[in-house]
Amino acid sequence: RKEVEQDPGPFNVPEGATVAFNCTYSNSASQSFFWYRQDCRKEPKLLMSVYSSGNEDGRFTAQLNRASQYISLLIRDSKLSDSATYLCAVDDMDTGRRALTFGSGTRLQVQP
Amino acid sequence: EAGVTQSPTHLIKTRGQQATLRCSPISGHTSVYWYQQALGLGLQFLLWYDEGEERNRGNFPPRFSGRQFPNYSSELNVNALELEDSALYLCASSFGNRGLKNIQYFGAGTRLSVL
Predict the structure, then answer these.
(1) Which residues in A52-82 are b (16+ Cβ under 10 Å) and which e?
(2) Residues of chain A above pLDDT 70, percent
(3) Angle at Cα A78 formed by Cα A15 and Cα B40, nearest 5°?
(4) What is the pLDDT of residues B15-61, one digit of tens each?
(5) Residues B107 and B50: beta-carbon distance below 8 Å
(6) In chain A, which residue's Cα lies nearest the Cα of B101?
(7) Residues A83, A40: Cα–Cα separation, whole Å
(8) A103: three-class secondary structure by DSSP
(9) Cα–Cα distance between B65 and A94 in angstroms, integer?
(10) How many cross-chain Cβ pairs, A to B, lie less than 8 Å apart?
(11) Partner B contacted by A87 (CB < 8 A)
(12) Could you tell me which of B59, B57, B63 has the C-alpha nearest to residue B77?
């Protein structure tokens, strides 16, 4: 089983739609969680940190479910510019690794 | 404020050669991470440097090595290049052990092509 798993998609949604992605992680001791956005052949850009209470930034909402070991990203009112690959990342601080383990990404295509 | 910078942008080498990739972290960051992203694959952790020391490495052979300089910039060296080393190499930086949350910011990457 992979440490961090995501549905690769693609998710094809019309403009204005609401779309949600899930990401499961295997290490129950994981402490920090992130969502990154990666455009084709570019570097990942931090979208949001995910806190235990959940957090919202404009149209984007991130949630953490420790019991079921997953994080989610909700995008409301999708824009064409949201088309990208969304990567979840987990930092196993308790192991001292400090590296981020990334999921393979979920591709979103927002259509006019 | 400048972000993470990487050079060169593109690098073309032949099998068996050595490649050197460079990274300058965000000012104030002491940790530098290297990741490999092969075409169609996810990001794989390579190396972590903090305060000039190698702190951890991923599941890569020893021909992948590097170092961190006193100014916290870093070099990644790949010896005896193989075709499958062709990938986007991404560098990220963070406040490292001084940061409560290990928020990493990425550079634009070096695209290495091995012919």
Answers:
(1) eeeeeeeebbbbbeeeeebbbbebeebeeeb
(2) 95
(3) 100
(4) 999 999 999 999 999 999 999 999 878 899 999 999 899 998 999 99
(5) no
(6) A32
(7) 10
(8) coil
(9) 25
(10) 59
(11) yes
(12) B63
